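#structure-requests
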Amino acid sequence: MFTRSDAVKLLRSLPFASAQDVTSFVERVGKVTAGEIAKLLPEIADLAPRSTPQAHKLRCEAFLAVTLNNPSPDLFVPCLRALNKADEALATVLISALPHVNHVPAHGEVVEMLGSPKPSLRVAAGEVLKQVGGRSALEAATTRALDPGFGGRNEAMNVFLARAGQHALPLLGAVLKAGKPQ
């Protein structure tokens, strides 16, 4: 089994000039723990400014492939939190990975992202919730929507009215009760 330092060294050493580098990375890393995979996230972000856009995109794809080969709910929160600083390429990969590493107890954190001042985070949270949001996320969104300062009401309604139908009526009631975000 690869250790963190081995996976990180390999990530840093491969040029990621072609899809062959992605395949090589995934095959050589093989089975790893969620903690080892999570340690790759800051490395990908660190290498991005010094890489070509193609190399960065391929590193992100390699991360996704390793994650899909080793899915674990323990990756949900690190991937979700990485969205805060992720560029577009990494964010796209993280949004794709999150449903595969779903962890229902952390859905409240996704709901909190709906209220982010950053539009890209609100969109990302909405995309994730469209795929994995269930009763607990709907309940969290309904509770947050009652807070007059919560700015994610529109996003919550977009996600849950389409996903939950009549079960989202309490959310609609909370939004109407709270009024416009302050």
